[in-house]
UniProtKB/TrEMBL annotation:
It holds the Pfam family YCII. This is YCII-related domain-containing protein. Residues 12-76 form the YCII-related domain. Belongs to the YciI family.
Length: 85
């Protein structure tokens, strides 16, 4: 599993690409590749958890323009080994 942590700087520019990003996440979730995803309650960032290989994880990030949108910064990309599922 892999986690992706994002930070938002308050720029409204990211909102233009957010609907397509959320649709991608919905499709990945239905396929079992996104376990959980969502913004922090104060809108300063988000946390996403993927159940994919390292190669799939990088491809997902590369294929989604949201992760390169103004106002979005990838803070952390980390493999995660859950103790419980």
């Amino acid at each position: 599993m892999y986690l992706l942590e994002l930070a938002f700087d308050g720029s409204p520019d990211r909102l233009a690409v957010r609907p397509a990003h959320r649709e991608r996440l919905r499709v990945l979730h239905e396929a079992g590749r996104v376990v959980m995803a969502g913004p922090y309650s104060d809108e300063t960032g988000a946390l996403l958890l993927f159940d994919v290989t390292a190669e799939e994880f990088e491809a997902i990030i590369d294929d989604d323009p949201y992760y390169r949108a103004p106002g979005v910064t990838i803070v952390r990309r980390q493999e995660w080994v859950p103790l419980f599922r």
